[in-house]
Specification:
Helices cover 41% and strands 21% of the residues. Strands 1, 2, 3, 4, 5, 6, 7, 8 and 9 form a 9-stranded mixed beta sheet that branches.
Amino acid sequence: MLKVSVITVTYNEVENLTKTLKALLKQDYKNIESIIVDGGSTDNSVEVIKEFEKKFKGTVKWISEKDHGMFEAANKGIKMATGDIIGGYWDVYASSDVITKIVTTIERDGTDGVHGDLLYVEGSKIKRYWKMGEGKIQNGWMPGYPTLYLKREVYEKYGLYNEKFKYSWDYEFMVRILNKGKVKLSYIPEVLIYMFYGGSSTSGFRAYKNSILDSIKSLKENQVKFPRIITFKRFIRTAFQFINNRNISIDVKEKKEKKRG
């Protein structure tokens, strides 16, 4: 059975951290390694991690120390991971069998990784529905990063996150590995993650502007032609995600409880 390393980075978000770790405990896959990288939180995050460590029966690795942001913390987590498949996880799984589906799909298709759909949520309210399907970076497409799980070999071949891209470190990495079809992904056409609404990419106009500028630099860094046009196409795709929310009437809380049952 393949080992899956699930990397959680956190800093002074004890409420969300608690939700995240509880959802991880409910996963039905039997070979999960939990990696928790805390940025030196001053709330009681460390106490929560220690309690979770006991419940997870010896398959948790964690550190708590200052860092320069999620990009550095994620790199620390990857270096700590020993799994065959590695994914970032700081939100909530949509169901108890998400990791099972990820592993099954990779094994069935023989691909380098998987991605799927996600919902940006604030409490029980849906803010945005990320349903990108399959596509190409050149057309403004990109997978939903929180749903992206990759074989260890991808990191060994293409490296870790480039820490000079403070606002688009995840996007630069995806451009680097997906440009020209280098890494092959399978698409799982269903919601895998409920993502907490907030963070560097959803926390205001200034952060969004910085993310856009960083994204253009990411494309240039990886010798992708027409970076501004591609970025505009991404903007259009994102706008449609917000518009499509009007057609979604499900209640996130009710959906979670139904799946848990």
